[in-house]
Design a protein that fits this description.
Layout (H helix, E strand, L loop, with lengths): L2 H14 L1 H17 L5 H18 L15 H21 L1 H15 L2 H7 L4 H13 L3 H19 L5 H22 L3
Length: 187
C-alpha cells in the first residue's frame, strides 16, 4: 500500500475543504458534548460517511451530513459502551492490559464505521468484515494505518484546538485507505 499517496491525497482534500471540515468537526464535537456522548457514535458515523463521499466522489461535505446516519445510533452506542467497559476492566486489572485491549479493538474494528455507513452492514457483520480486512493482505500495512490514525488523532487530542485539524485529516486518511481496500478485494 502506498501510504505516501494516501497522505498526499488526504492533505490535498483537507486543504481544499479546510473550512467545512473544521466546521463539521466542531459540530460533531458540540453535538457529542451536548448529548453527553449519547449521540457521539451516530454523528461520528455521519461524519465518516461524508468524508467517504468526499474521497470517493469528490462530493462537498456539509454540516448536515453528520446527522445522516442516525439509524446506526443504537447499535453503535451499544458497541461503544461494550468497548468502553471492556477497556475499563482491562485498565482495572492491569493498566498495560487495558491499553492492549484498546489497541486490539482499534486494530480489529477500525473499518466498522465505514462499513456500516458505506455498505449498510449490521454491527456484527461489519466487525467480522473489518477483521477480515485487517488481517488479509499485508498486516504491516494495516498496522501502519492504525499507528498513523491513532498518532495523528493523539497529537490533535493533546491540544483541544488541534483536534479540529487532526480529526478531519486522520478521517480522510482512513477513508482513503478504506476505499482502496474495498476496491481491491471482495471480503
Amino acid at each position: 500500500m502506498n501510504f505516501r499517496k494516501h497522505l498526499e491525497t488526504s492533505w490535498h482534500l483537507f486543504v481544499e475543504h479546510l473550512m467545512i471540515l473544521i466546521f463539521m468537526t466542531l459540530a460533531m464535537m458540540v453535538v457529542s458534548a451536548l448529548t453527553l456522548g449519547i449521540l457521539a457514535p451516530a454523528v461520528a458515523a455521519g461524519y465518516i460517511n461524508s468524508i467517504i463521499g468526499l474521497v470517493r466522489q469528490g462530493r462537498e461535505p456539509s454540516i448536515q451530513d453528520i446527522f445522516s446516519q442516525m439509524r446506526l445510533w443504537l447499535p453503535l452506542l451499544a458497541f461503544a459502551i461494550a468497548a468502553m467497559i471492556l477497556c475499563l476492566i482491562g485498565y482495572v486489572i492491569f493498566f498495560p492490559f487495558g491499553i492492549l485491549i484498546a489497541c486490539a479493538l482499534t486494530f480489529a474494528c477500525i473499518y466498522v464505521l465505514p462499513l456500516m455507513c458505506d455498505q449498510q452492514l449490521g454491527l456484527q457483520e461489519a466487525i467480522r468484515k473489518s477483521w477480515k480486512m485487517a488481517v488479509s493482505g499485508e498486516i504491516i500495512d494495516h498496522l501502519v494505518l492504525v499507528v498513523l490514525f491513532l498518532g495523528i488523532s493523539a497529537i490533535g487530542g493533546s491540544v483541544f484546538i488541534g483536534s479540529f485539524v487532526t480529526t478531519p485529516f486522520a478521517t480522510i486518511l482512513l477513508a482513503s485507505v478504506y476505499t482502496e481496500k474495498v476496491n481491491q478485494q471482495p471480503y
